[in-house]
Amino acid sequence: MEFELNDRLKQLNSMLCEIDSLYQALLSAKNISDSEFVVINAILSLGEGCLQKDIAETSYMSKKTINSTIKKLEKEGYLKLKAGKYPNMHIYLTPRGIEHIKNHIFPIIDVEERFLDSMSEDEFERLIVSSSKYIGIFKEHVANFIIRER
Questions:
Q1: Structure confidence at residue 1 as a pLDDT band (50, 70, 90)
Q2: What is the pLDDT averaged over residues 73-100?
Q3: Distance (Å, rounded) from C-alpha 141 to C-alpha 31?
């Protein structure tokens, strides 16, 4: 079968893979998994006491992955879970978790912030507008694809 990706798709895929590779290098340098970084970032964004469902909604990761990551972080002593209104468990950082974030997560966030600081406001705004448009159009096409495949 002969099939060739168009140049625009090749360029986009290459860029997305390169971004992923750069994040993998950052995470690897601090021995952090993708899911750990995403879950901790979500906790930092949402605030302590957030729920797994909140993390799932904001992180776009599967509930199963989030659950197993939270259990791993709890076992390592970085998080503690407190019962809320059944069946909700609220997530809190432990002192060990806060130390872990200071030593392993904040240095990665610092790289991200320095990168963003090196962009002008106009460049950043164009990135956000363009990326938002890309995501919106892609969502439409994915939804249409799923409907056709059913």
A1: low
A2: 93
A3: 36
Number of domains in the chain: 1
Structure token pair of residue 79:
């998080």
pLDDT for residue 87 is more than 90:
no
Predicted local distance difference test score (pLDDT) of residue 134: 96
Q: What residues pair up with 83 in beta bridges, in sequence order?
A: 89
Residue type, 39: V
Omega prior to 87 cis, within 30 of 0: yes
3-state class of 48 per DSSP?
coil
- HSE (CB half, 13 Å, CA atoms) of 138? 8
Instruction: Give the bridge partners for 80, in sequence order.
Output: 92
CATH code of 69's domain: 1.10.10.10
- What pLDDT score does 93 carry? 96
